[in-house]
UniProtKB/TrEMBL annotation:
Keywords assigned: Hydrolase
A Pfam cross-reference name: Isochorismatase
InterPro entries: Isochorismatase-like_dom, Isochorismatase-like_sf, NIC1
The keyword Hydrolase is assigned to this record: yes
Keyword Hydrolase: yes
Regions crossing the membrane: none
Species: Ruminiclostridium cellobioparum subsp. termitidis CT1112
Name of the featured protein: Isochorismatase hydrolase
Domain of life: Bacteria
CDD domains, alphabetized: cysteine_hydrolases (cd00431)
Domain Isochorismatase-like span(s) in chain numbering: 40-166
UniProt GO BP: pyridine nucleotide salvage
Length: 223
């Protein structure tokens, strides 16, 4: 990376951020019932207590996603769309704790799906011991058992970490096999956290853009 002056960087970046904000502000919605139900799955990533309700990494921004994702979950049930829920479920020796505070340990309430989504039910739960749920053997088995699924609605948190890693890895997995796929991320159903220089609004925007340039469909909402 070639560094320029701080003033030039701030000026040029401000224009880029404005353009990105406008692009996503004008993103359209998709009618859920127009997606092929037998080829579609709803993916809910880390909508668990340890990110929404308690613990070192809890965020009100994540908690505020719950009603939208519950509503989407219920609509998927009505349309016969399958559902998956990933949940951080770490061992006590997870190397991830070198980068993040200890969180979502196995067999604790932090690792459990929030009650509202749990009560809606109807999903397959996949525990994960890393930020990228794609790598879990249980998900790999599910992919192999569901070869007709090629449309993924990805929701949850955090947009710039687990959502982004899963979505891009999944898209490139399909690309490698020359198989068409749709990975759809609704803006109103994903978010990240605020902490120090981790500005939630900024990192959320940049994650959406990074997914966009990697072939992920970024939409306003599913209606």
């Amino acid at each position: 990376m070639k560094y320029t002056s701080m003033e030039d960087f701030a000026r040029d970046s401000s224009k880029t951020l404005y353009d990105l904000y406008k692009m996503f502000e004008e993103a359209g919605a998709i009618e859920l019932e127009k997606l092929p139900s037998t080829h579609t799955v709803l993916v809910m990533i880390d909508m668990i207590n340890g990110f929404a309700r308690s613990g070192a990494l809890m965020s009100k921004r994540v908690e505020e996603l719950i009603p939208e994702i519950v509503s989407l979950s219920v609509k998927c049930d009505e349309l016969g769309i399958s559902k998956l829920a990933f949940a951080d479920n770490h061992t006590g020796i997870s190397p991830e704790f070198e980068a993040y505070p200890v969180h979502c340990l196995k067999d604790t309430s932090e690792a459990e799906v929030v009650d509202e989504i749990k009560n809606a039910g109807g999903y397959k739960l996949i525990p994960k011991n890393s930020t990228n749920g794609f790598l879990e053997e249980e998900f790999q088995n599910w992919l192999g058992q569901n070869p007709d699924i090629n449309t993924f609605i990805v929701t949850g948190d955090c947009t710039d970490i687990c959502v982004q890693q899963f979505s891009i890895t999944l898209k490139t997995w399909f690309n490698k096999q020359n198989r068409s796929s749709r990975i759809i991320v609704p803006i109103n159903a994903v978010d990240t956290y605020d902490l120090g220089i981790h500005n939630g609004d900024l990192t959320n925007l940049m994650a959406l853009y990074n997914m966009h340039i990697n072939g992920i469909e970024i939409i306003a909402a599913l209606i």
